[in-house]
Specification:
Blueprint lengths: L5 E4 L6 E2 L4 H14 L13 H14 L4 H21 L5 E2 L3 H10 L3 E5 L4 H11 L7 E3 L11 H11 L6 E5 L2 H10 L3 E4 L3 H10 L4 E2 L5 H4 L12
Helix pairs in contact: 1-2, 1-3, 2-3, 6-7
Length: 232
C-alpha cells in the first residue's frame, strides 16, 4: 500500500461496537415517509437506510410537496434517526484492541480522522464513552456535512480538515458503503472484518484488502511525509 500520512476511520462497527437498533430506525423512517403519502412498496426494505432516506426525499418531490414541506419532513426523519442512535449510546463498547491500534498509529506520526453517518451527538458521546477521543483529530458526522457518505465529499472534508493531501490517505471501514465512499474518493480502502456477514458483503462489493484486527493496520501503511510546502 502506498505511503500515507493519515488514516480515516468509519465509526460504528469499526472503532466502536455500536448497539444502534437499525430495524427500529428503518421502521420509524419508513413510517414517517408513508404518513406523507409515499408508498411503502417504493421504499424497499432491502435497501440501505441512507438510500431509503434519499429515495424518500425524491419521492416527496414527485408527490408535489413544496420544498419547505420536504425540508420539514426530512427534519423529522433526521430527528427520528438521531433519537434511535442516542438510545444506543448506553450500550456502546470499544472495538477489540482499538486503543492499541490507534496508539500505534499516532506514535508513528499518522493523523487520524473519523467519517460517520451517525449524528454528531451520538458519535461524540460514543467516543467519550469508549475513551478514544484523544487519538482523533477530526470527526465529521452526518449532520456536520451537506453530503454524507457514501458521497466522497464527506471523506474529502475530513481529509481537508486534517490538512493532508488526498493521495496520502487510507480509509478503513466495515461496510460496502464505506468501500463505495473510498472508491468514489479514489483512496485505498482497508476492510475491517467485524464478522463474517459483513465480511461477505465487503467481498461481494469488491473489497480486496482486509484486517480482522485493527492492530494490523499499522503493518499495512507506511508513514512518509509530503515534500515541504505540499498541502491538501
Amino acid at each position: 500500500m502506498r505511503s500515507v500520512e493519515a488514516v480515516v476511520f468509519d465509526l460504528d462497527g469499526t472503532l466502536i461496537e455500536s448497539k444502534i437498533n437499525y430495524p427500529e430506525m428503518r421502521r420509524r423512517v419508513v413510517e414517517l415517509l408513508v404518513s406523507m403519502g409515499v408508498k411503502e412498496e417504493e421504499l424497499s426494505q432491502t435497501r440501505r437506510l441512507w438510500e431509503i432516506v434519499m429515495g424518500g426525499e425524491r419521492l416527496l418531490r414527485d408527490l408535489g410537496l413544496p420544498p419547505e414541506g420536504i425540508q420539514q419532513v426530512m427534519r423529522r426523519v433526521t430527528e427520528a434517526m438521531n433519537a434511535v442512535e442516542l438510545e444506543g449510546v448506553v450500550n456502546v463498547e470499544a472495538t477489540s484492541h482499538v486503543h492499541e491500534a490507534l496508539e500505534t498509529l499516532r506514535s508513528r506520526g499518522f493523523k487520524i480522522g473519523v467519517a460517520t453517518r451517525s449524528c454528531n451527538a451520538y458519535a461524540t458521546r460514543s467516543i467519550e464513552k469508549t475513551a478514544i477521543g484523544g487519538y482523533i483529530e477530526v470527526l465529521l458526522a452526518r449532520d456536520d456535512v451537506e453530503y454524507p457518505k457514501a458521497d466522497a465529499r464527506h471523506l474529502q472534508q475530513v481529509v481537508d480538515a486534517l490538512g493532508v493531501p488526498m493521495d496520502k490517505v487510507v480509509f478503513v471501514g466495515d461496510t460496502a458503503t464505506d468501500l463505495k465512499t473510498a472508491e468514489e474518493a479514489k483512496v485505498p480502502f482497508i476492510g475491517y472484518l467485524r464478522n463474517e456477514r459483513y465480511g461477505r458483503r465487503l467481498r461481494e462489493a469488491g473489497c480486496r484488502v482486509f484486517v480482522d484486527d485493527l492492530r494490523k493496520i499499522a503493518d499495512l501503511v507506511e508513514r512518509r511525509p509530503s515534500p515541504a510546502g505540499a498541502s491538501g
